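pinging the channel bc i need a second pair of eyes. not urgent but kinda urgent?? the chain im working w is below, pasted from the shared doc
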Amino acid sequence: MANKISKLHSTMDHGDMDHGDSDMCSMNMLFTWNYKNTCVVFKWWHIRTVWHLLLSMAVITACAYLYEYLKYFSTKSLVASSNASMGRTVQLKRASWYGAQVGFSLMLMLVFMTYNGWLMLAVVLGAAWGHYSWGILTESNTRTLACH
């Protein structure tokens, strides 16, 4: 019986499956510092070398910084418009900015969920830098999702 199963398996077409050292995205479910073959959110954002890692860290740091700026900008611009009558246009604008913030923070959360220590560090550094630059101005009158 085992011989029949072995023969059956040997005749199966496995397509393009490569069980060796391939260039496929790795999916880690445990914390790691290994960067090779890490894909960040999208399949095309594939880290293969140290230079890819450094560039990815710079982009992620900038994105986390920009997220903090987005919180500041939306608070600054919407506080001024909320003093006016709360018409549909203002409500739509506030809802749009809030949706952008949530989407941005969830994308940063997905970066964090790669469980890659280097990428996690980039998110934290960018958030700290952004909060240092913009957080003081928004602390008193905003809520935070803190997804990143």
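so The helical segments are 2-11, 50-82, 88-112, 117-138. and The mean pLDDT is 81. — does that match what u expected or am i reading it wrong
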